[in-house]
Amino acid sequence: MRLAAALFGGAIALIAAQLVGTAFMQGMGIPVPGAVAGLILMLVALAIVGGVPNGLGKLSDLLLRHLNLFFVPAGVGLMAHLGLLARDGGPLMIAIVVSTLAGLVVAGVVFVWARKRAGVES
């Protein structure tokens, strides 16, 4: 019974974070998904609290153990639109590779900048 209550509390925390993030983004007119804003708000709240509450940790562990189930709808959609993938696969792969490399370069530049700003020697 305690596990169910802990999981329920964790689910409420996740849903509340998403709802607050969605309301904030829609209210401000910022084109960022509410789930992303909610995750950022949750991160800030967890940093302030200084850790992950028991219920949220248990729910996170449960979701991570069954993470593969979240890929089933994407796989079904991929199989349903295989013709589109065959037609547009080349440009999609180029876009994926270029955007990944751009993200790595930006992350590396920010990392080096942050180390220099913090005064960390190599």
UniProtKB/TrEMBL annotation:
Keywords: Cell membrane, Membrane, Transmembrane, Transmembrane helix
Subcellular localization, as worded in the UniProt entry: Cell membrane
Bilayer topology term: Multi-pass membrane protein
Membrane-spanning residues: 32-55, 67-86, 92-114
CC annotations in GO: plasma membrane
PANTHER family (alphabetical): HOLIN-LIKE PROTEIN CIDA (PTHR33931:SF2), HOLIN-LIKE PROTEIN CIDA-RELATED (PTHR33931)
Name of this chain's protein: Antiholin-like protein LrgA
Organism, as annotated: Candidatus Phaeomarinibacter ectocarpi
